[in-house]
Amino acid sequence: MPLQGMIIPVTDFEQNCLLLWDDATGEGVVVDPGGDVPRILKAVADRGVTVRRILITHGHIDHAGGADELRARLGAPVEGPHPADAPLLENLERQALAYGLSGARNLRPDRWLAEGDRVRIGAEEFSVLHCPGHAPGHVVFVSPALRLAIVGDVLFRGSIGRTDFPYGDHAALISSIKEKLLPLGDDMQFLCGHGPGGSFGEERRHNPFLQ
Q1: CA dist., res. 49 & res. 206, Å (int)
Q2: Which of 35, 52, 161, 208 has the fewest CB atoms within 10 Å around its CB?
């Protein structure tokens, strides 16, 4: 498959920062650089990837805390999330202090994303879905051609994103999953923000939060 990828675990939350790249051109993206920027930069250098953009699914510290530093180091623009997450991104430094993390910077993306927008990862085009609930501005990146969705903290294998944080909304989260993700098809594979990925079919059938 021309699109290659690896997971780079970052921060004490073991967040799945993703490095995805086109094998033919070496061009790619970093998704959700929550922190540990030197570790991310090493992975980029080791694989010879030219990072064209930094994608953010939502504004929580473990997903966006390292984005501003990485942008400065790589010269790549930050795209996402939806503007409803602006209050979270404007307070990343405060979020970091609350969790005892260091090095986080507040963030203003170069491009906000909304439902129906498109982003490129190598030669592949991904469409943007706005999936609030875990965070009000959470976005998901979907490639119908690759049968792949990058879902951040909306959905996990056997679980769903927490909604007990500020701005969380459980009903909105369930609606996002059932009305926007599951209709994409049982064979759609997903990569998530923590732990192993899976398929929408498995979650539709077995995830206790969706029954």
Answers
A1: 37
A2: 208
Total tally of structural domains belonging to the chain = 1
Q: What distance in Å separates the CA atoms of residue 162 and residue 196, rounded to the nearest whole number?
A: 17
The rounded radius of gyration (Å) of the Cα atoms in the chain is 16
Does residue 1 register a pLDDT over 60?
A: no
Burial class (CB in 10 A: 0-12, 13-18, 19+), 159: middle
What is the domain extent for residue 76?
3-210
Q: How confident is the model at residue 2 (pLDDT cuts 50, 70, 90)?
A: confident
How many contiguous H segments (helices) and E segments (strands) does the chain have?
Answer: 7, 13
DSSP 3-state helix, strand, coil percentages of the chain (rounded to 5)?
30, 30, 40
Global model pTM greater than 0.90:
yes
* Phi/psi of residue 27, nearest 5 degrees: -90, 140
Strand partners, 119: 126
β-pair partners for 187? none
Phi, psi values for residue 188, rounded to 5°: -70, 120
Exposed/middle/buried for residue 205 (C-beta within 10 Å: 0-12, 13-18, 19+): exposed
Over residues 120-165, the pLDDT tens digits come to: 999 999 999 999 999 999 999 999 999 999 999 999 999 999 999 9
- State the number of CA atoms in the 13 A half-sphere of 47 facing the CB: 25
Euclidean distance between CA atoms 127 and 119, whole angstroms? 6
